[in-house]
Write a structure and sequence with these properties.
The chain is built from two helices and seven strands; from the N terminus they run ββααβββββ. The protein is of the alpha+beta class.
């Protein structure tokens, strides 16, 4: 599994915003679909809420790539 650290300036950040910030999606609708389809996990658990608040150290996984909030 690939692992990337993502530096965020301001916490907390919502999951949908994080996906847009990291250019994993192009807009909020794409983020919503990706999340609702169960393709995103946070700290090892499938997350279906676009508004999930992320904090430093959270691990977001999509496919075989993990993104660590730092």
């Amino acid at each position: 599994m690939k692992q990337n650290n993502v530096a965020i300036n301001r916490y907390p950040i919502k999951l949908g915003q994080f996906l847009k910030f990291t250019d994993l999606v192009s807009d909020g609708i794409e983020a919503k679909l990706l999340i609702q389809n169960g393709q995103v996990s946070v700290n090892g658990e499938i997350e279906t809420r676009r508004g999930r608040q992320l904090r430093v150290g959270d691990e977001i996984t999509i496919g075989d790539t993990a993104y660590i909030c730092s």
